[in-house]
Amino acid sequence: MTNFEINSVAQVVQPGAVEERRMAAVRRKRWFYMALLVLALVAPLAVYPVFLMKLLCFALFACAFNLLLGYAGLLSFGHAAFLASGGYVTGFLLTQYSGLSTELGILAGTLASALLGLVFGLLAIRRQGIYFAMITLALAQLVFFIYVQAPFTGGENGLHGVPRGYLLGLFDLNNNMTMYYFVLALFVFGFAVIQRTIHSPYGQVLKAIRENEPRAISLGYNVAAHKLLAFVISAALTGLAGSTKTVVFQLASLTDAHWHMSGEVILMTLLGGVGTVVGPLVGATVVVTLQSYLSNGPLGEWVHVILGVIFVICVLLFRVGIVGWVLKLARRNF
Amino acid sequence: MSSSANVVLETRGLSKEFRGFTAVDSVNLRVQEGHIHALIGPNGAGKTTVFNLLTKFLAPTRGEILYLGKPITRLQPNEIARLGLVRSFQISAVFGHMTVLENVRVALQRKLSNSLHFWKSERSLDGLNEQALQMLDDVGLLDYAHTLTIELPYGRKRALELATTLALEPKVLLLDEPTQGMGHEDVNMVIELVRKAAVGRTVLMVEHNLGVVSELCDRITVLARGAVLAEGDYASVSADAQVREAYLGSEAASHEEAHA
Prior knowledge:
heterodimer; A: mainly alpha; two-stranded antiparallel ribbon; 13 helices; globular; disordered N terminus; B: alpha/beta; Rossmann fold; 2 domains; four-stranded antiparallel beta sheet
């Protein structure tokens, strides 16, 4: 052989050490998630459960969005449509058919969003970058105006008094604590789906596509199909978040369909740290907390200005988001 | 000319126009089985455009492309990869934030047809690791298997790219300037790698470095201004007066100026 020893600059890593380090990382991660879960289980003892449920719904929304932006490299500006569709379908069904159990209503909302995601995806997926974002925005606006006009959404008034009903026909969800643990279970399910997707054979190919799309094509992968799947999974989980939110607040309204909502989820994801697993959780927590506490205080509408300033500072100073920044700091110091 | 029976890749009247500018002008190319075939020419001769047409990354304005006698003119780029025509890229195309092992494994993964299985564990890919390590050993990258690819030096990224390409077991290798931007030592490494990879395969390469071409290639097609100027082995092509003029023209002219 020729001159293989010439440029051995890159570090040689021993396979045994790799396996060990990987296991250690997995163990650390497991502890971290367990701690989070315990925290979530006891949280309603200290914090108002309805607020926590709102937080979980938005966290799931942001996580679903992050799957698309952080792991497939697709910036959707139309995710409000999926949040709202899940909410409206669930709200409508639960209001109209009193015999329907709550979990089926939520399932229907999730499926409706997945279907809508498939339609959006088929239309937008072949475009790149800003064109992709613009098409998703246009389609979401179309959906918004349909919801303004359609009779089953209640138009400007929205759907009020959606019954929370009974889980599996047994557990009374009108009890906030019961409702909270149901929402937590749904969130954990959604989060687990995202985790598995990222660490699956599909996740590997998705990563390859994000890293170098032409190369992934030249390896024979149908890039459009892979992106479409990410889009549909993301839309479905966004629908799940919207459906759950509707049940929690017993309300489905146009706010969820408005493009502000699409912008808000981008804000949450970028603020927390795009492409990190817990980033969207942190981002959603920060944004929802600020919104709730600041808008009740003397600041009122100024909350939007404050959020805007935080966002600008975040983009200027730490582009990798809060979690990305913490990870970077940790890597440098340990 | 030999019989058409063992022509693997052929173009007939292949043309590409960009807003009235003809980048490729009815090129007829015949690549024979088992050959290392080079596509050379001065800057702007249309080499890369021909390459992108062959790999379907561009659609031709006119003409036909045949692979093993069957037209592939209308196929998508990922579809021809599945037929066994696999390309490399000018800028070394690797997946930077995946490990060296994962780079090769993602190529091996394709034949498992599990690339849309989002519900399975990553561990289901571990069965490919042994084969991937073998392929890395072949290009001298075994020690780097668990290194993040972005940390590799340039020459080794090219070696990794080749290993990834070979993992697909291609029948035809299409290499786009494999030695571009490389130092002397790395060029020799790539020559060895291509020579090894070409055993039992057909290779079509676009190449700037005439030293590489003379050392590796069985047959050479010279392009100038989008059209075929000459074809033959290195000796006959390099003796061709037209080729010397087109290829060395600018250089010869600048020499004359310098001497004047």
